[in-house]
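Checked the freezer inventory, then went back to the computational side. Two predictions to log before the end of the day. The first one is the construct we discussed on Monday; recording sequence and tokens without edits.
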Amino acid sequence: MKVYRTVRSAFKALRRNPMRAMLTTLGIVIGISSVIAMMEIGQGSSASLAKRIASMGANVLMIMPGSTSSTGASQGSGSMATLTPTDCEVMAKECKSLKAIAPLVRARTQIVYGNRNWQPNQLIGTTPAFLEIRDWKKLASGQAFTDRDVLSSNCVCLIGQTVVKELFEGASPIGREIRVNNVPLRVVGVLARKGANMMGMDQDDILIVPWTVVKFRIAGSTLGNANQSASGGSGSSGNVLSKPFPSDAPTLYPARSSTQTENSPMLVRFASVDSAMAAAKSAQQVASAIAEMKTVLRRQHNLKGDKADDFDIRDAAEMSNMLSSTTEMMTGLLLCVAMISLVVGGVGIMNIMLVSVTERTREIGLRMAVGARGRDILRQFLVEAITLCLIGGALGIALGHGGSKLVEMFMRWPVETSPTAIAAAVIVSAGVGMAFGFYPAWKASRLDPIEALRYE
């Protein structure tokens, strides 16, 4: 009840001179509105920047099979066929920090359409999850192939803009057939343009096919073969599933020894992939995603104790660090501007409150003469200062939010509403009122009632 009477007295005192109260809060209004506007614009820019960097692969992880060694010399990462599509499926289910993961099988060969041919930079066999990892979910035309196409080894493909330009000369390729290593592939979609990556490589010079088609038809591997990268990626044997004669049909399962057959009579299907590509949910979750994948892969590969990993996980740590440093720099800059604005507003509050104490010296003396104690006077002036700052903060939040929306509307800058910044603005407003209003309130509470009543 006492607090309510104090707040009511504060409002009554502020209503005596509304113009001065409004001008007093102007500094806080400008400070808070600039903070809110800059925070929303800054967060929008940071989110846009993070999205662009993520599209370049800041949160992308490469999972490579292990390496073998010959006469003591390592054959390099990927020379051992230890990574399987099942590993990817298990990691997709169990790794909570992963957004998506896709197996990769690569080949390098020519594409033929009519009397034209072209050799793309990348011929990738994968699953539809690859499009999500590379931020390619939005196609220029057509549609993506599905998981059913992957399981059924359907001969469909997606092509990049450069391939469209080189083979179709601007005509729509949707529904047409191209031939890759004598395998007919129906074009079902065209990827949106991406341009060159940070290394200058044309990302639109790409052909994406279900991995089962690349592995068993284009590259001509059998299920027991090592991955294409390890064997040079040329796929020289070609289209093993479309041999014209039944006697040339490939063996889809690795040859088994008599001991293996006796020990496990059930046929085990095994298919290795060249590598896998995964995307963490954010650049900040890359470390946790790596830890989760290592745990799953070691369990899948039955690696116990101190046994070395038979895989290698690589991340774009440099790009993640760049994203973190950029975000920290922008946050620091906004914090400096906010501090300067709020200090200026707080000094204005203190100045006006000192003037108010001087003008109301006789009133303070009269209150003390009828029984008010020093802490009552302190509380009254402190509540007035905090009320002024909170009113200024509320006006500043509305003005800043409206300003950021105008910037988004007319300047097309990305803006993101920040509830955290709004809550912080309210708390900071109250804090500024308390910090800069304390001295005038303390000065008022220390007045001598007799001297105050004599004040002219």
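The second is the one RB wanted added to the comparison set:
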Amino acid sequence: MLNVYLFQILNGLGLGMIYFLTSVGLTIIFGLLNFVNFAHGAFFLVGSYLCFTVVAATGNFWAALVAGPLIAGALAWVTERVLVRRVYHLPHTFQILITLGIALIIQESAIMIWGPVGKSVPPPEMLKGVIRFGNFAYPEYRLFMIGFAALVGFALWLLLERTTFGAKVRAGSENPEQVALLGTNIYRLFSATFALGVALAGLAGVLSAPLRGAHPFVGTEVLGIAFVTVVIGGMGSFGGALIGGLLVGLVQSLMTSIWPQGASLMIYGAMAAVILLRPYGLFGRA
């Protein structure tokens, strides 16, 4: 019985890191641009389908791991320059409508290209086995996913906290007009931040594809969980996205063993409990 709970805890950590990668992009975009991106889950979908396509064509998961976030980020860069930046100054309701439209276009395009039936993606050949700790065995790919997502999270923290780019992003989230007056092209910074946030969603989609496959409605499901994670952690908070993602992943995974029918419900229960105690989230600011 102990092994069952240990298995579920590790599964929860893996899910939590996927939710962290997805929600940290969402919260970075909101923190700097004050922009509510309801198309974020659709770019997760793009990452999943790109993983399926590259693996089906080449059999190389590692190529998909590079191509997925790069192509998703490039698509986001174009979308931001053509459409998104035109609605920065509008109320959030207009931003939600615009990004919902983008999400529907991506979802319907995925159905036209890959069909309405989900696609399965095999894990890379070198990670198909299990690692044994005594009488406990755990899939290698899931452990790789936890470790790789943690490395990406650490690299992202270094980028945001220890580089000039990160300093500009943090300063821009506080006072974009002053950053622009100091000589920074604020629109180029916005484009780069939007592409970076979306690329993280694409990367999460690639990493989750060998576990959950790729299907056209995954974006809607992921978007809901990403917003729950951001609300729990606090809008605009890097640490909040990490803690919120891990909390949601662990609740979902453990409840799958204890009360399978209520696993999804308990995610929202956890969010409601956090809001009651801290209305701005665990690390949010008033």
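For RB: The chain has a mean pLDDT of 89. The longest strand covers residues 130-133. Let me know if you want it refolded.
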